[in-house]
Design goal:
One of its GO terms (molecular function) is ADP binding. Pfam families: LRR_R13L1-DRL21 (PF25019), NB-ARC (PF00931), Rx_N (PF18052), WHD_DRP (PF23559). It comes from Gossypium barbadense. This protein has 822 residues and is an alpha/beta fold. The chain has 5 domains: 149 residues, no CATH class; 160 residues, Rossmann fold; 78 residues, no CATH class; 87 residues, Winged helix-like DNA-binding domain superfamily/Winged helix DNA-binding domain (Arc Repressor Mutant, subunit A), CATH 1.10.10; 168 residues, Leucine-rich repeat, LRR (right-handed beta-alpha superhelix) (Alpha-Beta Horseshoe). It is 39% helix and 13% strand. The protein contains 25 helices and 23 strands. The strands form 5 sheets. A 7-stranded parallel β-sheet has the order 9-10-11-12-13-14-15. Strands 16-17-18-19-20-22 form a 6-stranded parallel β-sheet, with no helix packed on it. Helix 13 packs parallel to helix 15. It is globular. The two termini are 53 Å apart.
């Protein structure tokens, strides 16, 4: 992955080197001259990176050169981020120019000293890059102007064919029967019906297609059968030539033009019921597919085309029908395949209880994937003793997918076909433990924090673009088990995909869960998941990600560990330390000035946050969900001008929201807004919600019954302009006289709302008039006690699926047109 990351970092650096931030931190002319030199060097190196990518596959020296380049580019990126952060700090400092300069001079980061320090770092970085640039000349790299995405694939899949012996297929009888039904019995409106088979590499899509292709009923049913392996290059002329060759047994004249070829093809398939298998399609461009499909529609009714692909997107553009999704083998079928290969020459051992026990433990690692089972079983077939099998299970098995397996190169083809921006995003997922249920929104936020998401279209938020990236990876089978539970999306990675992510991430990422691994983490490691107690063993100080997952064994986070993180991890973009019983957050945390993502959720005993957090001006995400004793957010929160996601869901002891939160107009989520009950905390009032119209997801407003001048304040909240909100929870809990009757009317949300919860509203028994306008509502919940006596008809809400009414003891009737059985 070094080449893709180096290319993207180089591109980003050139942009940053041209930004206004550099001119805002008072650099002297000589430093600006050095920066211009740095920019020229980066541009020169970037021009040859595509050629270096290709050479690195076969030349280990080039691979090492790329790793060194990536390392210095990361350091240069950190340096420029330091400049940008200093410029932002200077912008946010109040007062006129003279006042700012005086304050800066006497500040802890004196501008003169800062300039000297950064000057030395710029010169050192320039020298390193210059040296690396001069080494590039030794390799004779060529300047390439084509994008990374279209560079040739270094490991091409061998050409497939239509024949497979029957005894080679185990466990696919049900899949075969389902496909035969689609091929022989299903009546389609189209003459040529296209059936996509989808699944990641190694599941046996080609083998299943071969199994069906060679079936006697298929042979008797179709007048003409053809098999073409499409693979990497989707060239319509080449595909047509190969279809003709498969149909006739002879290759067409190489000198024929496309017009002559298409005539030959149409003459061959015209008026016939044919079967065509297009194996291993990668092309995702609709226009190219349509240009081929137009040449294939001449068959008579009942003709079929089977497409095998790893990509859901390919399946969608090739066919209107639901693709056939191939899954792993059942446990019994997997064991049958394993046993056949592993005990090929030693049948007696297949019934030996010791071998069977070890074999089934090994088989669990194979995930039902035939290619993996064959690879591992083949390796075991050469090991004849129980001791050798046990040694393989305990030692070699953990490494086989990275070093010895034949299946990883097969999976890596999928990775090689990814655009560079998706390569980063996929490789980053290596940090999650295996079989971990990944929250998609969190994953996207981590990608954003690392700078993997590129905003080419200002009308889309980074998070929307990130979800697009995720969808692209899902469609290419990199994730599975995608679920939507209405609050968030989750997904998982197959163990094999996790192995692939680990392989392509290389030394840059690591899961650190033992003393041995911690001591092996080197300077070039940038991203880790870790048991925090192992942090003292780390040598590197260039980390950009430090994650802790709740399922990792750990002790409480001590002050000593905090000090080590802050002293040694100054380049961090992501810090996630959940469920560690943290009692106090170090006030020195502000020194982590590169932080974009800080998540300390689940630390239940934290009561206050250090005000110094508001000095981390790059923060995009600040999460304290389920910190049940947390009483308030930082007072100067408006200083966090880049903040998009402050998370405080489940923080039931919050007494108020800080004043100034309404200035953070970039906020995309605000799960909870707490009204100051008696005004004693000097908290924000509802009017601070007025301009926060980018809010998404859920907004829960608490203590509405405590609001003074409710009509004015509720209107000022401007809920009807928050078109991206999907869930609104309105909670009273206190009574403030007669304002409640009018106040609910003045809390009108946007019609896009899907979920509405009204909790303990004690106003008059009259529903607000705007309820009938919320035609997208799916769920309504009304909690008592309340004065509701009559429920209106909900029939005008066509999307409504659930109506929940709890503890409304004064309720007397409900309109007959309301949903039944809700």
């Amino acid at each position: 992955m070094a080449e893709a990351i180096a290319f993207d970092i180089a591109t980003e650096l050139i942009t940053k080197l041209s930004s206004r931030a550099l001119s805002q931190v008072g650099l002297c002319w000589n430093l600006k001259h050095d920066i211009d030199d740095l920019k020229r060097t980066v541009r020169t190196i970037k021009a040859v990176l595509l050629d270096a990518e290709e050479k690195s596959v076969t030349d280990n020296l080039v691979k090492v050169w790329l790793e060194e380049l990536k390392d210095v580019l990361y350091d240069a990126d950190d340096l420029l981020d330091d400049f940008s952060t200093e410029a932002l700090r200077k912008d946010l400092m109040g007062g006129n120019k003279l006042t700012k300069e005086v304050r800066l001079f006497f500040s802890s980061s004196n501008q003169f000293a800062y300039g000297l320090r950064m000057g030395r770092q710029i010169k050192a970085t320039k020298a390193r890059l210059t040296l690396i640039g001069s080494e590039a000349n030794n390799f004779g790299f060529m300047v390439r102007d084509r994008p990374v995405e279209t560079s040739f694939m270094t490991k091409k899949r061998p050409q497939t064919h239509s024949f497979v012996p029957k005894d080679k297929i185990i466990g696919r009888d049900d899949d075969k029967a389902a496909l035969l039904k689609l091929m022989l019995e299903f009546e389609s409106e189209d003459n040529v019906y296209i059936i996509p088979i989808v699944g990641f590499g190694g599941l046996g899509k080609t083998a299943l297609a071969q199994f069906v292709y060679n079936d006697k009923m298929v042979h008797d049913h179709f007048e003409l059968k053809m098999w073409v392996c499409v693979s990497d290059v989707f060239d319509v002329k080449i595909i047509v030539e190969n279809i003709i060759k498969s149909a006739t047994g002879q290759a067409p004249d190489q000198n024929l033009e496309m017009d002559q070829l298409q005539k030959q093809l149409r003459e061959k398939i015209g008026g016939k019921k044919y079967l065509l298998v297009l194996d291993d399609i990668w092309n995702e461009e609709m226009e190219e597919w349509v240009s081929l499909k137009e040449l294939l529609v001449g068959g008579v009714k009942g003709s079929r085309i089977i497409v095998t692909t790893r990509s859901w997107r390919v399946a969608k553009i090739t066919s209107k029908c639901q693709p056939y999704v191939l899954k792993g083998l059942s446990d019994d079928d997997a064991w049958s395949l394993f046993k056949e290969i592993a005990f090929e020459q030693r049948y007696a051992d297949s019934t030996n209880s010791a071998f069977v026990e070890i074999g089934k433990q090994i088989l669990e690692r194979c995930g039902g994937v035939p290619l993996v089972i064959r690879t591992i079983a083949s390796t075991l077939s050469y090991k004849e003793t129980e001791k050798e099998w046990r040694s393989f299970k305990d030692n070699e098995l953990l490494r086989i997918s990275q070093k010895e397996g034949k299946f990883l190169p097969t999976l890596k083809l999928s990775y090689d076909h990814l655009p560079s921006h998706l390569k980063h995003c996929f490789a980053y997922c290596r940090l999650y433990p295996k079989d971990y249920e990944i929250r998609v929104q969190t994953l996207v936020q981590l990608w954003i924090a690392q700078g993997f998401i590129k905003q080419l279209n200002q009308s889309q938020s980074l998070e929307e673009i990130g979800f697009g990236y995720f969808k692209d990876l899902v469609e290419r089978s990199f994730f599975q088990e995608v679920k939507n539970n209405e609050t968030w999306f989750t997904c998982k990675m197959h163990d094999l995909m996790h192995d692939l992510a680990e392989s392509v991430a290389g030394i840059e990422s690591s899961i650190v869960d033992s003393d041995k691994i911690a001591s092996e983490v080197g300077e070039k490691c940038r991203h880790i998941s870790i048991n925090p107690s192992l942090i003292p063993l780390l040598k590197g100080n260039k980390l950009r990600t430090l994650l802790h997952f709740p399922n990792m064994r750990t002790e409480d986070l001590s002050e000593e560990i905090w000090d080590l993180i802050i002293a040694n991890c100054r380049c961090l973009r992501v810090l996630k330390l959940n469920h560690l019983d943290i009692q106090k957050i170090s006030p020195s945390i502000y020194k982590l000035k590169h932080l974009r993502y800080l998540d300390l959720s689940g630390n239940e005993v934290v009561e206050i946050l250090p005000k110094s957090i508001c000095k981390i001006q790059n923060l995009l995400v600040l999460k304290f969900d389920c910190c049940f004793r947390l009483q308030e957010l930082p007072k100067k929160i408006e200083k966090l001008v880049n903040l998009t996601h402050p998370g405080c869901e489940g923080c039931n002891d919050l007494t108020h929201m800080p004043r100034g939160i309404g200035k953070l107009t970039s906020l995309e989520t605000l799960s909870t807004f707490v009204v100051d009950k008696d005004g004693s905390h000097g908290g924000a009032d509802l009017s601070e919600l007025r301009l926060l119209n980018n809010l998404r997801g859920q907004l829960e407003i608490r203590n509405l019954g405590s609001v003074k001048n409710a009509k004015e304040k509720f209107k000022a909240a401007n809920l009807r302009e928050k078109q991206h909100l999907r869930s609104l929870v309105l909670e009273w809990y206190a009574d403030n006289g007669d304002d409640d009757e009018k106040s609910l009317e003045d809390l009108q949300p946007h019609p896009n709302l899907k979920k509405l919860v009204i909790n303990r509203w004690k106003g008059d028994a009259k529903f607000p008039s705007w309820l009938s306008l919320l035609t997208n509502l799916v769920h309504i919940t009304i909690w008592g006690p309340s004065k509701f006596k009559h429920l209106p008809s909900f029939a005008q809400l066509p999307c409504l699926k659930q109506l929940r009414i709890l503890y409304c003891t004064e309720l007397e009737s409900m309109d007959d047109n309301s949903p039944k059985g809700s």
